[in-house]
Amino acid sequence: MALPRGFSLVLLLLPVLGGPGAAITIPQEFLQPPELTEQPPEQLVVFPSDDVVLKCAATGNPPVQYRWTREDEPFVPEEHPGVSLAPGSGTLLINASLAGRLQGRYRCAASNALGTALSTESRVIAENTPQWPKEKVLPVEVEEGDPVVLPCDPPKSAVPPKIYWLNSRIVHIAQDARVSMGQDGFLYFANALVRDSHPDYICHAHYLGPRTIIQKEPLDLRVAPSNMVQSRRPRLVVPRDPQPSHIALRGGTLVLECIAEGLPTPSVRWQRLNGPLPLGRVSLENFNKTLRLRDVEEADDGEYECVAENSQGRARSSHLVTVEAAPYWVRRPQSGVFGPGEAARLDCAVQGKPRPLLSWRINGVPIDEVPGSARRAVRDGALVLSRLEPNDTMVAQCEAHNSHGHLLANAFVYVVELPVKILTADETQYAVVENRTVFLHCRTFGAPAPTVEWLTPGLEPALQDDRAFVFTNGTLRLGPVVRGDAGTFTCRAHNTHSNDSVSAHLDVRAATRIEVPPQSVTAKKGQTVTFRCGAAFDPGLSPRGLLWYRDGQRLQDTADSDNGDTLTVTTVDYVDQGTFRCRAWTQLDAVEAEAQLRVVGRPGPVRDLQVLEADERQVRLSWTPGDDNNSPVEKFVVEQEEELFSAGRFVERVTVPGGQPWALLTLSPYGRYRFRVLAANAYGRGEPSAPSEPITTPPAAPERNPGGVKGEGNETSNMIITWQPLPPGDWNAAEVRYRVQWRPLEAERGRWHEQTVPGPPVLVGDTPTFSPYEIRVQALNEAGKGPEPAVTIGYSGEDLPLVYPENVGVEILNSTSVRVRWSLTGPPRDLRGHLRGFRVLYWHEGWVGERARRHVPPVPPGAAPPPPRVLAVPGEARGVVLGGLRPWSRYRLRVLVFNGRGDGPPSDEIRFDTPEGVPGPPEELHVERMNETTLALEWKRPRHPNGVLTGFLLQYRPGALGPPEELSFPPGTLNASLGRLQPHARYRLALRALSRVGPGAPVLRLGSLRPEPVLPVLGSVVVGEVGEDFTVLHWTLAHPQADIEFKVQYMSKTTEGSWHDSGSVNSSLGLFRLRDLSPGTSYRVQFVGRNHSGHHIPFWESEVQTNGTRDSFATEGWFIGFVSAVVLLLLLLLILCFIKRSKGGKYSVKDKEDTQADSEARPMKDETFGEYRWVGGDGEEKASRSSGRSLGAAGAALGSDDSLAGYGGSADVQFNEDGSFIGQYSGTRGSGPASPGAAAPLD
Description:
Blueprint: E1 10-16, E2 19-25, E3 32-38, E4 43-46, E5 52-54, E6 57-61, E7 65-70, E8 73-75, E9 83-85, E10 92-94, E11 104-112, E12 115-118, E13 122-126, E14 140-143, E15 148-150, E16 162-166, E17 179-181, E18 187-189, E19 198-207, E20 212-215, E21 219-224, E22 232-238, E23 245-249, E24 254-257, E25 259-263, E26 267-272, E27 282-285, E28 290-293, E29 302-310, E30 313-331, E31 336-338, E32 344-346, E33 349-353, E34 357-362, E35 365-366, E36 376-379, E37 382-385, E38 394-402, E39 405-415, E40 418-422, E41 428-433, E42 438-440, E43 444-447, E44 451-455, E45 468-470, E46 476-478, E47 487-494, E48 499-509, E49 513-516, E50 521-524, E51 529-532, E52 534-536, E53 544-550, E54 553-554, E55 566-569, E56 578-586, E57 590-600, E58 607-612, E59 618-624, E60 635-642, E61 650-657, E62 662-666, E63 671-681, E64 684-685, E65 695-697, E66 707-712, E67 718-724, E68 737-744, E69 753-757, E70 762-765, E71 772-781, E72 784-785, E73 792-795, E74 806-812, E75 818-823, E76 835-847, E77 869-874, E78 879-882, E79 889-899, E80 910-913, ...
Parallel strand pairs: 4-13, 14-21, 23-30, 31-39, 41-48, 50-57
Antiparallel strand pairs: 1-2, 3-6, 5-10, 7-8, 7-11, 9-10, 11-12, 11-13, 15-18, 16-19, 17-18, 19-20, 19-21, 22-25, 24-28, 26-29, 27-28, 29-30, 30-33, 32-37, 34-35, 34-38, 36-37, 38-39, 40-43, 42-46, 44-47, 45-46, 47-48, 49-52, 51-55, 53-54, 53-56, 56-57, 58-59, 59-62, 60-61, 60-63, 63-64, 63-65, ...
């Protein structure tokens, strides 16, 4: 066949068998064999309202012609009214009314002058709209715990419907491990509960083809409660065959199912007996009852076993799976363009199970029916054509089929002569990252087929490099590439008619890397987790970026994404766990890294809590564990509620291991119990399950008697019997009473006296004093008596003891301790109660050395004697060590016995003296600095000399190092001076008192010869902000100095009163806010500190005036009204008086004399009352004014913890001009504060 001048073809390259392959596309303006672009489906199911549409379309030049066959016979649309071909295509249209009559097998053929292409065979099935047949539905009645199967059985269809179970409110029936739907659409109950009773279990079938949902008549399930629910081992209801066999098709999906009934609810697990389950393709659904295997492979055949188990046993079922395959391509025949004289080979390799049958057609005609040709042969399934001629152009069909399906492929052989043409554009740019593989294309066309050669940028053959490979379609594969591979490659193509070449430019870039991959995290629920992904890019590549994915879904514009190299998940929950992946990308490559987020926390609530095997005293609980939330359940905690006595309060009853989803509990009689279970793991306890159905137990006799039985009297002639009542949980009935029995404990054992009472106490009267009794208390209720009670010994009331300790003696141990001994020789009955112990009563009567005190001084009339000190000795002891006594002291003591009623008579009085001991520390030690080398000391005698003082010992040393120096003083010396000391040194001083026994404890002081300030030296003080009720004082320091605390005081000038403390402040602060003042009031303000002697003295004073108006009762309305009334009344009286005088004349002489007499008799104190004043006020004021309140008030320091001003009141301490100590003390109290030059305490 001759081709038009300038004929050209375009070659498109597609990957085939791991490398680029070829498929021919010829431009429409040139002749081309027919190629199908649309084919009918293998199966088409239509319903009464659906038209039949069988698509068929093809390309070709000349234009193609279409024809159809039905059941392998020609089918002419024009011969059937209602059947037509769609304009411009071969699509067959059949009216819906004819679908039922014309269903069958159809095939389309597309032909032109170059050949015929065939479509696959399509099967048309016509169905009616599905309808559920009318049926009479009877109630399904079972007992609690029985298995239940609710059938569905929807109408059959070529396309199976989807099944749903709903109730009359269009709400899905809840499914779980106990209740679930099988693949057959039936609803299975492993065991029925009372709460499963509903009259409206409705099966719905959704048919996708006719877009119809139909429903079955509602099923009425009635579950009768039972007290005889028994556990039972699992039994498989699906599959019904004990060893079912299955045929799975390669590439399809295998579904295996096991549904079991039993009590407790069985759990299902799967295993493969001939190997492990295929990873990544197996999923367990429907609460592990369904195994779904996707993308079945031939290696998946074998034996799969399901095991259903509960606490009662297990059941097994083995599924035998055989994998077969519909025909599938191994090598599909490819169209080709060939030159005259060449040979063509169309490979057709197919596999399947059973082995497919393979056949060839040429232009739709079986090859056996085509006239023979010596140049045509079929070898190993391939069609081989040798020494091609132009009239050998054809379309060949390779067809394969077995019991599972069939395949059909069209391929044309086009014989033509053409020069070489390279279809790939010249100067094509390629970019790749290093270490990747690049494909440089060189698509050629020509007949005969051109030969392709590639040259490197150095113009050397590319195939010299082991990394290079050239495909049959001319594409060069090079990899892995390196930076040095960049440059211009050349493709040369030639055949017997011509040659051609093109260039390709290769650019090699740095590969994208993830340098910091995200790390897997295990987080507790509620925490915040951050993933980081650090990537490095080639700087010359743009655009580029980093994306985050969670379980394959891209995270974009969500709260979880930070749009950078970090991803933060806040407040993680269990739904957040999964695989997080970061992807760094450029236009040339992309790299990924992933991490796992695992969220852990407390386990979820358990499910399906069931009460099994309940009887009068025992119950068995069973449940299904909930989600462990990635932390194994360590234990289950069973809680119990007793509704009769503690409704609403669940208490922990028992704990069982995490692998035991059941518990056996014992119950008490007369109870109404509910139970709930919660799981616990390493992160705590989860939420409890829903409470179980209540269980009631009948009454029974008490199982135990009350404890804590006692018999004690509160009077000398009675006995009160008490006990601890039984808690309501031990009553075993609605109420309980107590049978109380008692009798005297005698040798002859008299009869029992008894009372039956609702509770304690029982009072027994007219009893002898402190007599023993046998006591029994027994619990009773409506069902009977409790066990035989134990006997308890009780006693009637006690009385005061009549016996007293004898043979009391004292043994001197040391100066502060003695041992006291005694005996108790009286008859035991004289105790008249239980012996509780003894009391030692002792009095201190003075010092041994005191004169004129040889006996206890008489107590003044009306005065109470001094109380003794008491030491209680519990039990039956006959002696005790009495410690804490004063040395060299006189004591007297007595001993008495006491019982539960009180104290008995005391023993005879014993007197004793403690020996002399070491003295106590001197009571005071005052240290004053005299000058730079001298300290003055003064002290007082010890408050407790503990003997005859023989003197004082003074030890002193500078600092904390070195041996101390010692000075001794006679006992009458109470002051001393230490001279020739180190100037400006600090001394540690220890003064001890001495007695004939030895030295006593010291009094310690620090003495300093270095002057130190005791009052701050201020530079200036100013009044800052002033308000109605406050003012702010500011000051500066005259020079750097230690931080000293002082007080701020104020006093109103309007109303004379005392000074008020406003607070304390440190000198370094520099300001103080004086609060709580009155508006419009003048105040005196002063700073007060301590001088060397420890006295408070003022060292600054000023006046302030607050803002505002002072409140006065004169502005009150009531006061103005009152004054106005008084003025008006006085005015009225004056008018009346004036009228009277104008009428009555003048006063008489008698009146005047009386008036004068009254004036002379007036006491003189009225005239001098206004001159009375406080004499001490002037003195205090003068002293205050002379107290040195200058801003620089400060003096020399002298270290002492006890101020010398304490002697004789607040005496003035006098110094010479050089600061030396004079040693004179004033015996009167001064009216003013001490000089600021007094001593300050040392640390």
